[in-house]
Design brief:
Length: about 80
């Protein structure tokens, strides 16, 4: 039996599986690296926002009358502490 034969078939008969495997591997690693880079671009903040944005939203809610002074102060203290 020849070294180019595998299970009775020529090694070239499964060439499309090789291409599919390479495509799958590059897709997997591309998505993994892209996800890590996106995480670093956001500064490692998984929530997607920053404290400054949260304080800004809090100030808008207070200005719109959605929350009272006591709640504003309590939440502002929680956000700026740390």
């Amino acid at each position: 039996m020849s070294a180019a034969m595998w299970n009775g078939h020529m090694a070239g008969d499964w060439g499309w599986w090789v291409w599919f495997g390479w495509l799958w591997m590059f897709s997997f690693w591309g998505l993994l690296v892209g996800g890590v880079l996106a995480l670093f671009r956001r500064g490692g903040n998984l929530s997607g926002g920053s404290r400054d944005e949260a304080v800004e939203i809090l100030c808008r809610r207070f200005a719109a009358g959605e929350i009272d002074t006591d709640e504003f102060r309590r939440r502002h203290d929680e956000l700026t502490r740390g």
